[in-house]
Design goal:
little secondary structure
């Protein structure tokens, strides 16, 4: 099995092309997302400041089959490295608000 937590030695370093330079200080446009508890949140209503949105593709439900090939996706079954690190890093985000709740 491949180690998905280690980057290859020959991975190119991404170049900053400046395409996002205009974004700091701008408001998020209206974009409504459904939360995990069925409520909705409009990202445009969050105001200025730093917002971290952590989407995940699927939450399983007892008695429901997972999509074909789901277990072949790295990190799809269980907790991915990104999810674990995101949770660990949340203590460094001042004035954080949790906008979703897990079922």
């Amino acid at each position: 099995m491949a180690d998905y937590t280690t980057l290859p030695d020959d991975l190119p370093v991404p170049a900053d092309d400046g395409a996002a330079d205009q974004l700091p200080g701008r408001s998020t446009p209206a974009l409504t997302l459904q939360t995990s508890d069925g409520d909705h949140v409009d990202l445009g209503d969050l105001g200025l400041g730093r917002t971290v949105v952590y989407p995940y593709p699927l939450t399983g439900h007892p008695g429901a089959d997972l999509p074909e090939g789901w277990d072949a996706i790295p990190g799809a079954r269980g907790c991915s490295t990104e999810a674990t690190q995101s949770s660990s890093a949340s203590e460094f985000i001042p004035d954080r608000r949790t906008l979703t709740s897990a079922r």
